[in-house]
Amino acid sequence: MIYPPLRLAWTVWSLGALLYLFAFYQRVAPAVMTDQLMAEFAIGGAALGNLSAFYFYAYVAMQIPTGVMADRWGPRRVLSGGAGVAAVGSLLFAFAPNFAWAGMGRLLVGASVAVAFVSTLKLASHWFPPQKYALASGLALFFGVVGGVMAGVPLRLLVESFGWRGVMASAGLFAALLCVAAWVFVRDDPVERGYASHHQGAGKHHGHTPILAGLIEVLSYRNSWLLMLAPIGFSGAVLTFGGLWGVPWLKQVHGLEPKAAAAVTSVLLVAWALGGPLLGNWSERLGRRKLLYLISGMVALAGWAGVIFFAPPLWLMVVLLAITGFASGNIIIGFAWAKESLPLRLMGTASGVVNMGPLLGGVFLQPGVGWLLDRGWGGELAGGVRLYDAATWQSGFSLLFATVALALVIVPFARETHCRQAA
User: Fold this and answer.
1) What is the fold, at CATH topology level, of the domain defined by 6-186+209-413?
2) Is the dihedral angle over the CA atoms 233, 236, 237, 238 positive or is it negative?
3) DSSP secondary-structure letter at 242?
4) Long-range contacts of 391-395, Cβ-Cβ distance < 8 Å, separation of 24 or more
5) For residue 337, what pLDDT is reported?
6) Which helix (DSSP H) or strand (DSSP E) does residue 40 occupy?
7) 408 near 302, Cβ under 8 Å?
8) Which of 370, 239, 237, 363 has its CA nearest to residue 308?
9) What is the pLDDT of residues 264-296, one digit of tens each?
10) Helices 133-150 and 153-162, interaxial angle, to 10°?
């Protein structure tokens, strides 16, 4: 049998990537609706951070089950089911009468779209040759960040025109359509379409490793948990700034209009999207993972220091955010690095474990920054929205810097794979 044509492979893969685009859109959408959400539900910074982070709580909790489901049931079923539940959660959030129902909607969305990235990686391991895996995973991140950019200025314009509830309801309808498309077009392996599989274990039936035993085996590899911890800083900082707190900071401290603030945070996300596939590709060419991960991590740390502590002019801050976002794309190196560190039969579970890291950053940092902001709040309000001074914002964002610094300390302890798959 021959391998599937790349056009077909990219088509199948793209439906998983589209759900990840939707996941990212929902992940960062609250950033341009902070005023509306705080006024609508009469909440402060800590509560808003928690409302946004409900998505991350559920997403993180689902990562290991998602990996197991991808290994056992295949991406087609998992992606279709995830998109269907995401539609329900989006509609629940859109029509929520109070904070509790809105939180439930965010929980459902986070839990359902948690399947997107791991399932897309699973599809890539079957439909693409091994040397294209880092590219495919990097482009998946690119798709995701496109969703994040759509949740910037375009979403802000739509919210101003149609209200946040109507826009979120439309997102739910998109997820419902994606559910149908994934079921109709996605296949777990090229063999189901009459082609040869790129997966090294295709056609071999070894039985399923028990869930707990598989998880214990994955965690017995040092790289699994080290490469899960590191993105808590690198990605968590990006998701916290670009996904929630960057826009209100730019409005309150730098006096930007909401659309301009959303455009600035989009620079961070776009650079992050570009950095993922490029850094992954450079790592492949270099034949090493650790060196480039460390260098990019140091660049990201320096970039955050400049933005948070040195109050640069707006043009320089935009440049620093672009550099920081690009360097933070190093998590794609981490995904490929983790895949190579374990046997392929454990890839789904391993991907779920490692993918917990970026979202754990959102779990801790989004409400953490909000809590620090509320601690320094002087009591000033504008239209029901809390206003924080520059010193309080700096105190809140210092949490991002500290977490990135800790991530940089972790990376040297991971074992280099030299871009070769473990037996």
Assistant:
1) Growth Hormone; Chain: A; (1.20.1250)
2) positive
3) I
4) 393/249, 393/252, 393/253, 394/308, 394/309
5) 87
6) helix 34-41
7) no
8) 237
9) 998 998 898 888 888 988 998 888 899 999 999
10) 30
